[in-house]
Amino acid sequence: MKTKFIKAASARTLRPGTMQRVDLDGSRILIANVDGSYYAVDDTCSHEDASLATGSLKGELVKCPLHGSRFNVRTGEAMEEPAQENLRTYIVRVEGDDILVGLG
Length: 104
Ligand code: FES
Fold this sequence. Notes:
Rieske Iron-sulfur Protein, four-stranded antiparallel beta sheet, binds FE2/S2 (inorganic) cluster
């Protein structure tokens, strides 16, 4: 299936060190700005139903607000228990001020 890129956020408002949850085509996705590079992963923690966007971002690591698991937003890797499953990652493309996320 061909990847479809959808506008998800604005590079003007998503500043370095911040993240944002977006709902795209029925998927809840977290977009993070790490030192000017954008990454997209599932927003829902792989442990239970928590929105990672309400956690905290330090470098490449997002910390779940519920039980403290950390995930790498670049690779989706679960770095700290209790979460054991990695997050799905998405391709990100920037066009001007638009941050696009690839779905499908
Ligand atoms: S819901 Fe995220 S660590 Fe438990």
